[in-house]
Amino acid sequence: MKALVAVKRVPDGNVPLRFKQDGSGIDPAGMPMRINPFDESALEAAVRLKESGHLTEIIAVSIGPDTCNETLRHALALGADRAIRIESEQVLEPLAVAKLLQALAEREHPDLVLLGKQSSDTDQAQTGPMLAALLGWPQGAFASALAFEDQKLVVTREIEGGQEALALALPAVVTADLRLANPRYLKLPQLLQAKKKPVEALTCVDLGLEHFASRQELLQVSAPPPRQPARKVSDATELLTCLREEGLLNDTPKTELKLETTTAQGRALVLAEHEGGRLHPSVRHAVGAARCLANEVVLLVVGEAVLAIEAATLAGVSRVLHVDVAHFAQTLAEDHAPLLAQAARDLQVDTVLAAATPFGKALLPRAAALLDSAMLSDVVQILAPDRFVRPIHAGEALATIRDTQPLRIMSVRPAAFAPVADQAAVSIESLATPAPAGKACWLSTSQPERNRPALADARIVIAGGRGLGSAAQFRALIEPLADRLNAAIGATRAAVDAGFIGNDHQIGQTGAIVAPEFYFAIGLSGAAQHLAGMRDSRVIVAINSDPAAPICRHADYVLEGDLQRILPELLALLEK
Q1: Backbone angles phi, psi at 206, to 5 degrees
Q2: Transmembrane segments in this chain: where (predicted)?
Q3: Structural contact between residues 477 and 464, judged by C-beta atoms closer than 8 angstroms
Q4: Residues 6+ apart with CB under 8 A from 358
C-alpha cells in the first residue's frame, strides 16, 4: 500500500512573531522555519505503518517555492521514500491546497493520505476534510491512534471530552493530532543522505489545474490586545481578597457578552451539535453569531425529536430543519456533510455556520468543499457582514479577513459570542435524507463520566501542569480546589503526556479551547500552544514557583511560592 503525506513549511512557533509595519502580515525576515509539527506527527505515523509492514511506499508532498525542498528533505530523512514539490508562489487557501492534493492523489493513487489536523501558523484545520470530500473518501479527523483490522483502517480520534473510534474503508484521508506519533530523533547521517535524494517538481499545469484566485482577502494582521500588567500578590489571603472583588464566589458572571443586533439581511443555516439528549451549549452561541449576519436563522438538527423541540425555542431561530434517521445516529462526516451542503443549496442561504468544536471542525470543511466555497475557522469577531477576525499562530496574532463570496461558511468560537435566550417555539420541518455513504463505520465513543462542569462551558477552570510533580500530587492539590469552586479541571499537554490526568482534560492548540470567567494556571509554564487554548479567559491567576514562567506575563494575578503550601492555604480560606 502507498501513502501520500502532505508536509508544510511553517515558522518556528517558539520564536516571537514580528509584525510588518503596515499591518499586512507577519514579517518572515530572519524567522527560523520548520516542518509543521502536526504534519511531522502524520509522517512519523506513516513511517511506523511502513515499518510494521502495512505500507510499502511513502510519498511526501509540499506546496510552495523551492525553499520547501528543505522541508521535504527533512521528510526524506524521517523515512519518506519519495518527495514531490508542487510549485506555487501564491499563499493558497485550504480549498486550493485540497484541490492540488486531489489532483496529485488521482495521479499517484495512494491508499492513504495523511496530513496534520492543522498547520501551526494559520490554525485552520480545513485541508484534510476538504480533500476527503473532493476525493469522495472517508476521513479520520484529529487522529490519535491508527490500526489495521479486517482490511479497514481503525482511527481513534479526539473529540470533546474523550475519544471516538471509526473504521474507514480504504482509500481514506487521516488528519493527525500531535498525540498520533512523536517524531523520532534524526541523526546527522540521515540528514546528509536525504540531501542527496531528488525532489520531483510539478506545476499546477502538470496536474491539470490553473492559477487559483483568492476567495478571501487578508486585510490586517495584528497582535492581540495586551492584558493589564499582572498584580503580584504576597500570599493566599491577598489573592482570595482580590478574587472576591472580581466575583469569584458569585453565581453570575461579573461581565457578560452583549448579544449583538443586526440590520443585516439574509439567511443563515446553523448546524446544531448535541450530546446526551440535549443541544450542546455552544449552539446558543452559534445562533448568537448567526444573528449578526442574517435576519433569518435556520437551525439544522440531526437527531431525536426532543432535540428539534429544544432547538425551536432558541431566540432568533426562524425555523428548524429536523432529520431523525437511524444512519445519522452517529455524527459521521461522510453522511452529515452532504446533508448540510444540500440544505444550504436548497435554502439558498448566505451563511453556513457552526461552533468551532471538534464536531464542527470535522464537518464544516467537508461541506464547504462540496459547495466549492472557501471557509473561515474560529471566528472571534464579526466586524461587518463581509469582515471577520480570527486568531492565527496559536493566538499570538489576529487576522482580519474580508470574505465577499455569495456563500460564507464559518466556524465560530463559542466564548466570543453571547448565547441567545429562549422564545416561543417556531415551526419544525422534516428534511429528506440521502442514503448513507457507507465508507465509514462508528465503532465506539469513550467519554469518562463527569462529576464536575465540562471544560467547554465551565465558569471556573483549575488547570495544572508538570510543575505539580506527579499524578498523585495533581489529584491531591487540584481536585479539592476544583470541588470547592465547582470548577472544571484542565491540564497542559506535558501533564497529560506525563500521565497526571486523561487527555480529555488537555487545554491548548492540541486540546480544548476555553475562555472561562476564572482560569487558575497552577504549576504550568505557559507554552504558546497552551496559551492558545485559554488566553481569552477573563481573569487568569498564575500560581507558580517560577516567577519567570511565561504564564506570569499573561496573568492578571501572580502568586509565587511553594504549591504544596499555597494551595492547601487557599483551600482552607475558601472553606471558612
Answers
A1: -60, -30
A2: none
A3: yes
A4: 141, 142, 157, 158, 159, 160
- At 413, phi and psi to the nearest 5? -70, 120
Find out if CATH 3.30.70.100 is the number for domain 2-214.
Answer: no
Tell whether omega for the bond before 550 is within 30 degrees of 0, i.e. cis. no
What pLDDT sits at residue 253?
Answer: 59
DSSP state of 151: T
Looking at residue 133, the DSSP 8-state letter turns out to be H
Which among 299, 422, 451, 273 has a CA at the least distance from the CA of 362? 273
Q: Which residue type is seen at 166?
A: L
Which residues on neighbouring strands pair with residue 319, listed in sequence order?
298
Distant-in-sequence, close-in-space partners of 366: CB < 8 Å, separation ≥ 6? 129, 130, 132, 133, 139, 333, 334, 337
Residues 6+ apart with CB under 8 A from 277: 304, 306, 307
Domains 225-252+448-575 and 256-444 share a fold: yes
Q: Which three cell numbers stand for residue 289?
A: 453569531
CB-based contact 189:198 (threshold 8 Å): no
Grid cell locating 39:
504534519
pLDDT of res. 381: 96
What dihedral angle (degrees, nearest 10) is formed by the CA atoms of 126, 127, 133, 135?
180
- CA-derived radius of gyration, the chain: 24
pLDDT digits (tens, 9 = 90+) for 231-258: 999 999 999 999 999 998 886 655 555 6
* pLDDT given at position 30: 83
pLDDT of residue 122: 93
Question: Into which CATH architecture does domain 225-252+448-575 fall?
Answer: 3-Layer(aba) Sandwich (3.40)
H or E segment to which residue 109 belongs: none
In contact, 363 and 409? CB cutoff 8 Å = no
At the top level of CATH, the class of 256-444 is alpha beta
Domain chopping of the chain, boundaries: 2-214, 225-252+448-575, 256-444
Beta bridge partners of 558: 232, 542
Spatial distance between the Cα atoms of 68 and 277, rounded to a whole number of angstroms: 48
Q: What does the pLDDT look like over 95-151, one tens digit per residue?
A: 999 999 999 999 999 999 999 999 999 999 999 999 999 999 999 999 999 999 988
- Find the distance separating the first CA and the last CA of the chain, reported in whole Å: 65
Stretches where the chain sits below pLDDT 70 are 251-263
pLDDT of residue 258: 62
Of 513, 522, 506, 512, nearest in space to 555 by CA: 522
DSSP secondary structure code for residue 245 in this structure: H
Q: What are phi and psi of 567, to 5 degrees?
A: -65, -45
Beta-ladder partners of 522: 464, 543
Q: What is the dihedral of CA 49, 54, 56, 58, to 10 degrees?
A: -30
Edge-to-edge strands of the sheet including 408-412?
Answer: 375-379, 408-412, 351-355, 267-271, 296-302, 317-323, 428-430
Per-residue cell: 371: 459547495
pLDDT at 251: 66
pLDDT attached to residue 252: 62
The C-alpha atoms of residue 476 and residue 494 are separated, in whole angstroms, by: 18
Residue 25 and residue 329: Cα distance in Å, rounded? Answer: 43
pLDDT of the residue at 256: 57
- Of the candidates 497, 549, 503, 484, the one whose C-alpha atom is nearest the C-alpha of residue 523 is 549
CA quadruple 78, 82, 88, 90: dihedral, nearest 10: -30
